[in-house]
Amino acid sequence: MEKNNWLVISTISKNNLPQSSVVMYNSDGKEIYFVTGKNTLKTKNIQFNDNVSITIPFYRNLFHKLIPAPPAEIHFKAKAQIVSKQDEKAREVLKEIIEFEEKTGTTEESIWIKVTTGRKIATYGVGVKLLDMRKPEKARNIVEIN
């Protein structure tokens, strides 16, 4: 989670309809933080229902991009919450994004979201040989975290 900087977050609307968005994020390896607009659909959905699903796809190396295999990924169910801009941990993790926002003057329009992972993380293509990623039965795994 720490090495990547973008993910797909899926939320549920008041009408129980799914909605997915790509966001840039920062992580300390345990929690994910991202900045978004106050009035975005994902913000409204998180205010209504804090259950989200996260997918983080990535290529393991340059060779991986060249072979006919899907990207590796981790995905998990999580809880999302809006956090205060005074939250010290959020400020530390989001430092680079905050500096960019301050330069561009977009801080008033944004809110900060913290995503806390569940205990189980599903993986695809993590810890397997690159060519085995074409074999789902070898490429899939579930990892429990504390």
From TrEMBL:
Instruction: Mention any Pfam family matching this sequence.
Output: PNPOx_N
Magnesium: present as a keyword of the record? Answer: no
Native source organism of the sequence = Candidatus Heimdallarchaeum endolithica
Q: Does the keyword Transferase apply?
A: no
Listed GO MF terms: coenzyme F420 binding; oxidoreductase activity, acting on the CH-CH group of donors
**InterPro entries assigned to the protein according to its UniProt record, in alphabetical order:** F420H2_bilvrd_red/Heme_oxyg, Pyridox_Oxase_N, Split_barrel_FMN-bd
Q: Pull one GO CC term from this UniProt entry.
A: cytosol
- Protein name, UniProt field: Pyridoxamine 5'-phosphate oxidase family protein
The organism's superkingdom is given as Archaea
What keywords does the record list, in alphabetical order? Oxidoreductase
Q: Which residues form the Pyridoxamine 5'-phosphate oxidase N-terminal domain?
A: 2-117
